[in-house]
Amino acid sequence: MKHTTKIIVGVVSLLVVGTLYVLLTNKEPVIEIVPETIVEPEVVPEIPTTTHSVIGKSVQGREIETYTIGTGDTDLLFVGGMHGGYEWNSILLAYEMIDYFENNLSVIPDNVKVHIIPNLNPDGLFLATGLERRFEATDISSNAMHTSGAGRFNANDVDLNRNFDCKWAPTSSWRGATVSAGTSAFSEPEAQALRDYVATISPEAVVFWHSQANNVYASECENGVLPETLTLMNAYSVAGNYGAVPVFDAYPITGDAEGWLASIGIPAVTVELEGRTSIEWTRNLAGVNAVLNQYGK
Fold first, then answer.
1. pLDDT value for 125
2. Burial (0-12, 13-18, 19+ Cβ within 10 Å), 191
3. Is 125 inside a domain boundary?
């Protein structure tokens, strides 16, 4: 009974105090409301699976592009168009490979990132075909299906695959002809673009698409062929049904990109398509998948 009385007295006291406060201040008693703290979920930025960038420009100012697909830490680089319009099918193959990977991301192992430079020599493509950037096989006129070598060189008339720092000399050879290798190693902006991009991504391996010889060639410079290069060569050649050539000895060459990569410890191969007008899709897809399997975990 005593407790009940105390409670009643307490409540009455509060009411009296509240009433007096209102009468004296003409204000309602302030009741402080503490807002509820809302914790927003952490937003993790999505990593893009495909990116496109410009890594340099040609002698005549055309963009040299690269496409990167995947998010792994093992970088693999594929390069087309070293010889521009003379080997236009290597460019078309590179673009088709980009499309394939963008639509089939699951074929790229989680630990792998694929980089593709579709055309290292855009001036050479334009010289031979009048085309720039992306194109289709039907865009190539009959006069571009030649064997004269037009479009092989850049706008300075330099053979880009003689302008790299592996036994470089001012002139070199191509099928018995003397070709310009530039004024020094990496004198040409196209070669500089590839050099700088390699320094940026540090690829585990590099594959160049050329035509036409129906072989996969290993690379070397001063110290012979790297063991990893032979493994890369065999993987691509077996899967793609191309011949395998450990050492190129058809004629002496200097300043080739593959040899330069070998000199800095990066395995590199040259895939020479069988013809100059087809991308040989099934064979090259098999070869590329073999490379992905080799470096995938």
1. 95
2. buried
3. yes
